């Protein structure tokens, strides 16, 4: 999350985009983000801060917006600043249409993508390689567990019955609604509370 990255650079010259006050625009559409008074690095029209943090949501929404609705800092970040290194956390989301446009708008000499799993349900891993670059380091899950990077998880299967009416609805439903019915089974809440 953005907060984790901010904590990693605590005490350093960091600018968090979009952390300012929200203010409606004159035209009444959208909003502008005013610079945050808590940011530890001042804005400069031509030089990005040593570390700039932003979310995909803020930046991709901004890349799709009218220039009039953008804040000064987001315009600089998207269209003026040239970055030495662009770190894309959760990089498996980059091939999404809005994120792809964003990646094209940001100018960086080098890009590093971080993700737990580069596979995508739409099979668009090739787009990830073209936007970020090839996989340079892969740490298999068993190795990460052995190194203590990822905690070992214990799991336990708890079977939960359903009421007769829920079982009947489940039996008569197509596949997709069945998942929802199983998820919303009220008896699961009681089972969960007993585990806690």
Report the mean per-residue pLDDT as an integer: 75
Distance between the termini: 26 Å
Low-confidence stretches: 19-41
Q: Give the % helix.
A: 25-40%
Which structural class best describes the helix and strand composition?
Answer: alpha/beta
SS strand fraction: 5-15%
Number of strands: 6
Describe the global form.
elongated
Q: SSE order, as H and E?
A: HEEEEHHEHEHHHHH
Strand order of the largest sheet: 1-4
User: How would you classify the quaternary structure?
Assistant: single chain
Helix segment count?
Answer: 9
Largest sheet: 2 strands, parallel
Rounded to an integer in angstroms, the radius of gyration calculated over CA atoms is 23 Å
Question: Tags for this entry?
Answer:
single chain, 196 residues, alpha/beta, two-stranded parallel ribbon, 9 helices, 6 strands, 38% helix, 14% strand
Q: How would you describe the overall organization of this protein?
A:
The structure is a single chain. With about 200 residues, the protein is an alpha/beta fold. The protein is about 40% helix and about 15% strand. The protein has helices spanning about 1-10, 55-65, 70-80, 95-105, 125-130, 140-145, 165-170, 175-185, 185-195, and strands at about 15, 20-25, 30-35, 50-55, 80-90, 105-115. Helix 2 crosses helix 4 (about 95-105) and helix 7 (about 165-170) packs antiparallel against helix 8. The chain is elongated, with a radius of gyration of 23 Å. The two termini are about 25 Å apart. The model is unreliable at about 20-40 (pLDDT under 50).
């Amino acid at each position: 999350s953005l907060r984790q990255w901010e904590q990693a650079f605590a005490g350093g010259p960091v600018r968090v985009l979009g952390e300012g006050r929200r203010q409606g625009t004159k035209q009444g559409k959208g909003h502008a983000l005013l610079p945050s008074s808590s940011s530890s690095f001042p804005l400069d029209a031509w030089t990005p801060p040593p570390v700039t943090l932003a979310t995909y949501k803020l930046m991709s929404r901004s890349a799709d917006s009218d220039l009039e609705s953008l804040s000064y800092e987001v315009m600089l970040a998207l269209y003026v600043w040239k970055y030495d290194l662009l770190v894309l956390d959760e990089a498996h989301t980059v091939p999404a249409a809005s994120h792809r446009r964003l990646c094209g708008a940001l100018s960086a000499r080098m890009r590093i993508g971080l993700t737990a799993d580069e596979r995508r349900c739409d099979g668009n891993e090739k787009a990830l390689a073209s936007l970020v670059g090839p996989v340079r380091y892969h740490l298999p899950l068993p190795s990460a567990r052995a190194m203590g990077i990822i905690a070992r998880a214990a799991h336990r299967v708890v079977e939960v019955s359903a009421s007769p009416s829920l079982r009947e609805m489940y039996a008569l439903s197509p596949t997709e609604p069945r998942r929802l019915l199983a998820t919303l089974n009220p008896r699961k809440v009681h089972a969960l509370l007993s585990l806690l």
